[in-house]
Amino acid sequence: MYSPGFSFMINACILLSLMSLISSLEPQLGSTRVVFQTNYGDIEFGFFPTVAPKTVDHIFKLVRLGGYNTNHFFRVDKGFVAQVADVMGGRSAPMNEEQRKEAEKTVVGEFSEVKHVRGMMIQTVVHPHSRYYLEMLLISTARWDRYSALTSFQMIQSNVLHYVLYADMSSFQYAIFGRVTKGDDTLKKLEQLPTRKEEKLEADLERLMRQETECPTERITILSSYYYDTETENCEQDRSILKRRLAASAVEVEKQRMKCFP
């Protein structure tokens, strides 16, 4: 019979191996970061450009155009999802021609192996902290058209079983295109806000179904947004450090020169 200490070591090794496997399955984040600013704090996320390049290009172009400014989170299901509205109808400010032109574009559903492997989702089960995932919800009149991805997306936080159940029941298809990198505390604040149930009729080519969604009683506005590049930030830091070192070296050289050649 194994001792409690030995069993603990075995379990720890299994857990570490599982976490290592999960990490290897997680796609590589690009260097771009986008920040949504709300009354409840900031939410920062990065993109998976190798997983869903068309989706990333579409969303990031709208970010650069200021398309998500004055938009809002129209749905917050506690412990499951926070969903950003489509910019065509979700903004309080009018759109200019360039913003509207980009917002009206549709993107083919880039369904990847990431969705099926769910490496990152598995990590939510074994890790004590929640992980949030950005997924492009395919939106159109029919809602299940694989060529109808627009500008609404979800930040998912749930365990694997809940997610699988939801996906199987609704028959929705999703394309993972990024992950929240900062702002877990903000998302948790949004989860605590009061909501009301709204029943929406979802149309399928073969059937109709009703879906209840949790909508916040107050508008959660994206006041503004901005973006930056982590590689550029790192280069600036490295350059600053190098400048300080060069300055310190110059001072030391001058000291030695004065000492040797008074």
From TrEMBL:
Under the heading Pfam families, the entry gives:
Pro_isomerase
Q: Which keywords describe this protein according to UniProt?
A: Signal
Residues annotated as domain PPIase cyclophilin-type? 35-227
Coiled-coil residues? none
Residue span of the signal peptide, if any? 1-24
Matching entries from InterPro entries are given as: Cyclophilin-like_dom_sf, Cyclophilin-type_PPIase_dom, CYP23-like
A GO molecular function annotation here is:
peptidyl-prolyl cis-trans isomerase activity
Superkingdom assignment:
Eukaryota
Protein name, UniProt field:
PPIase cyclophilin-type domain-containing protein
